[in-house]
From TrEMBL, chain A:
This is Spore germination protein KA. The lineage of its organism: Bacteria, Bacillati, Bacillota, Bacilli, Bacillales. It holds the Pfam family GerA. PANTHER family: LEUCINE ZIPPER PROTEIN 4, SPORE GERMINATION PROTEIN. Keywords: Membrane, Transmembrane, Transmembrane helix. InterPro entries: Spore_Ger, UPF0353/GerABKA_families. GO terms for biological process: spore germination. Belongs to the GerABKA family.
Automatic annotation (TrEMBL), chain B:
It is a multi-pass membrane protein. Gene3D superfamilies: Amino acid/polyamine transporter I (1.20.1740.10). Keywords: Germination, Membrane, Transmembrane, Transmembrane helix, Transport. The keyword Transport applies. The chain crosses the membrane at residues 12-29, 41-63, 84-105, 117-134, 146-165, 218-239, 245-263, 270-290, 302-320, 332-355. It comes from Jeotgalibacillus alimentarius. Its main location: membrane. GO terms for biological process: spore germination. This is Spore germination protein (Amino acid permease). InterPro entries: Spore_GerAB. Belongs to the amino acid-polyamine-organocation (APC) superfamily. Spore germination protein (SGP) (TC 2.A.3.9) family. Pfam families: Spore_permease. It is found in: Membrane.
Length: 501, 361
């Protein structure tokens, strides 16, 4: 402490002089060095005022402009001015509040006038953010290529641009005792079920962390069952995906500093939808969606089925295939599980290695890992070539899933299935599948069933889960969001029938 | 948000269907054919119709009794002591059913695929998912039953190749065994239909729009009858009656002989799928039994009784190893089943309704 007489004051009017005020502000902001306190004199008026701000958080060009402007307006005429950027406070302002606002990029102009403190807060935070670009993990062929960036304001701007409705509600929450990160809950209040919104808010409010790193970090605290391998929130960096889900009655949650939005209540099938499905023709969209759902089964079960057949049920292979398979498998010294594990782990290694490398190097690793190892391992007689086919097919199928979360889930889940198949054959696989199915049935996202259009069964839900019906036929919103506003649209093909008449 | 602990009419329909369709499907053809010979299908049809009528009577009585748990009804109808005693008998009956279902399933799977795997492992693999499923809420079980019903049409499709070379002469002469044998066959038929009474126990979960929804579900046995008839006729078309009385699992034999381009031995794949169907009927009975014991012993949750019941079933099954012993355990089933699924429920419902009427007057 600089002086012996120093004592902690709570609000501004408890201090007597500029000198004391400076000490207090400096104390409350932890005597940090980037806190700037400028003394400002003006010739026409006889008084001293100080300007307080945290330098890196302030847009200095704007500060200059505003200072000039306010000098002309206020310091000469002595009138108080408020604008969208300038806010007046009086002496009752708490120091804690003042410092918090300093940290949000506000500059304060403080002066003493007739024994009264006059405080002007000027909001000029520096806004630096990445340009709006296509998210690398969710690239699509057709449709909008814009994605979120790290600035919450810019992300909300993108959503508001797409949904210009007065029903779009954004609720801010401060998360993190130390980081004070702004987060936003976004929903459309005449579509989303407000009971679910309330539940979401209840969960957000119970978050008690020091620092909110990212959305993924908070997701574990918000989701219904964090011990489940399945993601219970849809994670996306695409604005069009968020608006699409908002219009179906789901709720999005975003955090300042994270380019990702999490969307709930999600269901299993929403992870298999891609914006591409809607931008192309519906037959093709349906085909690719079915393909993706089949790829889930292939990625999950193919190695397990192969192991089960090789080690338990060889008789399932039709006669014509028996000899080639037998020949391939015969020379291998290991049990099929070990064989599969070698290859699976290799593929996981290649994936993990290439993901952080620059693109050209990554490709080289892919070639070395995939082609060279794959070929050599068969020639060396460690792994049968049928197993290489099986594992490669599985790997490709697991990457078909549009969502990265679900993709990792599938890749993790196939290991227990392989183990079950080794130990108990088809029976083991079925038992594993049954457990998985029961788990999925019991799983909930924000209290809504996860396997929704199937369990509980909704006939109308099929139109946009395994199939992708023409958009003019999808006139109701999905039932799993429990929306009260079920009718999405009218009949857009009326012209067609009018022509016929 | 909490899910309502409520079941819709269609869900109840599939709950009842899945409780009925179990391991019996595989051995039913032989059991009925031994008694009614080539008129087995008539026995099956008559049995189905009778049980369907019985279910309609249940429906009629239930709608009058109101939204009550069947086991509470027992107490209300016969007084607390006799009611509790009867409920305890029911619990024993359910454990018996679970035991029989577990044993016959393990018998099929260890005879057909896993000759060398220890029985206790097969049992554990069967019981673990059952415990996991039954410990959920009734909605979860209903959804599971509904979802799993997709497997039923799969079996129908797999059996269609049988009709490429059908031999309809196997049915003739119709009625050659006489009415006596056909009616005798009903006893074997009943075994396949056991589970229809789950309508009584699950109906209390149907709350909204009760009359209409219960009516939908009451026709579940009609569906099961048609399904069973299809299976039986398919096997009768394929096997001569002299073969049919020897072949233990006719459907599996048919599937074994069929061969497709991509896979051989569909019976192995099919039996693995059928595990799930067997599991649902086990789970449904387990859920009923545990919920009943929850009421009986005034417990908070139905999870603890599940562990006890399954443990009892598991340990008892360990001691019954020989084929003859397993068959011996099953012999009492028809008689016991008639008491617990036909006589007692009818008696209870009538008694309760009469008793209540007197009170009102």
């Amino acid at each position: 402490m600089e002086s012996a007489s120093f004592s902690k004051k709570v609000s501004v009017h408890q201090t007597q002089s500029i000198q004391e005020l400076q000490e207090q502000v400096s104390y409350y902001s932890g005597n940090t060095n980037d806190l700037v306190m400028l003394q400002i004199h003006h010739e026409s008026i006889e008084r001293t005022s100080i300007m307080v701000y945290i330098e890196p958080l302030i847009d200095s060009v704007k500060l200059e402009e505003l200072l000039e402007w306010s000098k002309e307006m206020k310091w000469l005429t002595n009138e108080r001015v408020t604008s969208s950027k300038i806010q007046s406070y009086d002496g009752t302002l708490m120091f804690e509040q003042l410092v918090r606002q300093l940290l949000e990029g506000e500059a304060f102009l403080i002066c003493m006038e007739e024994d009264q403190w006059r405080i002007e807060g000027i909001k000029i935070p520096k806004q630096l953010s990445r340009a709006i670009e296509e998210p690398k993990s969710e690239q699509i062929v057709r449709g909008s290529h814009s994605g979120f960036n790290e600035s919450l304001a810019s992300n909300i701007y993108q959503i508001r641009q797409r949904l210009k409705t007065s029903h779009l509600v954004i609720k801010y929450f401060q998360i993190g005792k130390e980081s004070n990160t702004t987060s936003a809950l976004i929903y459309v209040d005449n579509i989303a079920n407000l009971m679910i919104v309330e539940e979401f808010i209840r969960r957000i409010q119970s978050i008690d962390v020091d620092i909110a790193h990212s959305v993924g970090f908070l997701e574990e605290m918000l989701e219904d069952n964090c011990f489940s391998p399945f993601p219970q929130f849809l994670v996306t960096e695409r604005a069009d995906r968020v608006t699409g889900n908002l219009s179906e009655g789901r709720i999005a949650f975003m955090l300042d500093g994270s380019p990702t939005a999490i969307i709930g209540p999600a269901n299993f099938f929403s992870f298999y939808q891609s914006p591409d499905d809607y931008n192309g023709r519906f037959i093709i969209g349906t085909f690719y969606r079915l393909l993706r759902l089949c790829s889930f089964l292939v990625a999950l079960l193919l190695p397990a089925m192969y192991i089960a057949i090789i080690s338990f049920h060889f008789e399932v292979i039709p006669e014509a295939l028996t000899l080639p398979t037998k020949r391939a498998v015969e020379g291998i010294p290991y049990p099929p599980l070990f064989e599969a594990l070698i290859l699976e782990i290799t593929i996981e290694l290649i994936r993990e290695a290439t993901i952080r490398l620059p693109f050209p190097v990554g490709q080289t690793i892919g070639v070395v890992g995939g082609l060279v190892i794959g070929d050599a391992v068969v020639n060396a007689g460690f792994v049968s070539n049928v197993m290489v086919i099986v594992v490669a097919l599985t790997a490709i199928s697991s990457f078909v899933v549009p969502s990265i979360e679900m993709n990792s889930t599938v890749r993790i889940l196939r290991f227990p299935f392989m183990l079950l198949a080794t130990l108990f054959g088809f029976y083991g696989v079925t038992v594993g599948l049954t457990l998985l199915l029961i788990h999925l049935i019991r799983l909930e996202s924000l209290g809504m069933p996860y396997l929704s259009p199937f369990a509980p069964f909704h006939k109308s839900g099929m139109r946009d889960t395994i199939l992708r019906m023409p958009s003019w036929l999808q006139s109701t919103r999905p039932a799993e969001t429990m929306t009260l506003n079920k009718i999405r649209q009218g009949f857009s093909k009326r012209w067609h029938y009018a022509n016929k008449k | 948000m909490q899910i309502k602990n409520e079941v819709t009419g269609w869900q109840l329909f599939y709950l009842v269907v899945q409780t009925q369709v179990g391991i019996g499907v595989l051995s039913m053809q032989k059991d009925i054919s031994i008694v009614s010979r080539n008129d087995a299908w008539i026995s099956l049809a008559i049995g189905g119709i009778l049980i369907q009528l019985l279910l309609l009577v249940f429906l009629w009585l239930l709608l009058r009794a109101g939204e009550v748990d069947y086991f509470i009804l027992l107490e209300k109808a016969f007084g607390q002591i006799i009611g509790k005693l009867l409920a305890a008998c029911y619990l024993a009956y359910f454990i018996y059913i679970l035991l029989v279902s577990n044993l016959s399933f393990i018998k099929v799977i260890s005879e057909w695929i896993y000759m060398d795997t220890p029985r206790w492992i097969l049992m554990l693999l069967f019981l673990i998912p059952a415990v996991y499923c039954a410990s959920g809420k009734v909605v979860h079980i209903a959804r599971f039953s509904m979802l799993v019903s997709i497997i039923l049409p799969v079996l129908v499709m797999l059996l269609i190749p049988v009709y490429s070379t059908p031999n309809y002469t196997h049915f003739f002469p119709i009625g050659s065994e006489g009415a006596g044998q056909i009616l005798k066959g009903l006893e074997a038929t009943l075994l396949a239909y056991i589970g229809f009474e789950s309508f009584l126990y699950f109906s209390k979960y149907v709350r909204s729009n009760r009359e209409k929804e219960l009516k939908k579900a009451a026709f579940s046995t009609l569906f099961v009858t048609v399904f069973y008839l299809f299976l039986l006729i398919s096997t009768q078309v394929y096997f001569h009656i002299e073969e049919l009385v020897i072949v233990p699992y006719a459907v599996l034999y048919i599937l074994k002989s069929l061969s497709f381009v991509i896979v051989d031995r569909i019976d192995l794949i099919f039996l693995s799928l059928w595990i799930v169907i067997v599991l649902t009927s086990f789970v449904n009975f387990l859920f009923i039994a545990s919920n009943e014991s929850k009421n009986l012993f005034n417990l908070k949750s139905h999870k603890r009784p599940i562990i006890f019941i399954v443990f009892a079933v598991f340990v008892t099954s360990l001691f019954i190893k020989e084929k003859q012993e397993i068959i011996g355990v099953q012999t009492a089933l028809p008689a016991v089943a008639i008491i617990f699924t036909v006589i007692l429920p009818l008696g209870t419902l009538c008694f309760y309704l009469l008793f209540r009427k007197e009170k009102e007057i």
